[in-house]
Amino acid sequence: MGKNTWVLLYCLLSIPNLALTMGVGVEEKVDGAIPVTTLSPPEGNTTFLDGTTWCVALAGVSQDDLQNALDWACGLGMTDCKAIQEGGPCYDPDTLLSHASFAFNSYYQQNGNSDIACNFGGTAAVTKLNPSYGKCVYAAPGSVGSAAPPLLSFIWWWKLALLCLLLLYLRS
Predict the structure, then answer these.
(1) pLDDT digits (tens, 9 = 90+) for 35-64
(2) Distance between CA atoms of residues 12 and 28, nearest Å
(3) By the 8 A CB rule, do 69 and 124 touch?
């Protein structure tokens, strides 16, 4: 094989690894006491049987446990928590219980509405009562994107592949 062929082969084999080191790869969730994504939503999915459900934080649980679960949901759980940040539609009331409920429900909706996606170390439970209030609208089934790997990593891979091809062309 010629030098250009080796460069092209190297680029194509290196791009997925490069994409991961650039932070555009799929993040894995850490396994632990906090729930993880279930792979088959119909199993244990209460929305298929009893209608719409939401996940809310339980009153009366340890504040430390609730804070740890909220931190996990907004961090490793990859939940979008912008709505509960200051100025967001769900910031008020500014309570740990309210903020945790919003984050837990977002995670629950993104991860197939299964009972295990609404556990958070025993700090949350499924409810049939819509917890939305005022401008704060809690996600319901079908209103939130799935937890599938983002399209972004796929797009970056192709951009990098095209960049390698362009560099290869310019070198010849």
Answers:
(1) 444 333 344 444 444 589 999 999 999 999
(2) 24
(3) yes
- Helix and strand tally (H, E) in the chain? 5, 2
Please tell me the pTM assigned to this model. 0.57
* Mean pLDDT calculated for residue range 20-27: 39
The amino acid at residue 151 is: L
What CA–CA distance (Å, rounded) separates 172 from 165? 11
Whole-number Å distance between alpha carbons of 108 and 111: 5
Element housing 74 (H / E): helix 63-74
pLDDT at 16 over 60: no
Closest CA to 105 of 69, 153, 149, 151: 69
Compute the distance between CA of residue 158 and CA of residue 167 in angstroms, rounded to an integer.
Answer: 14
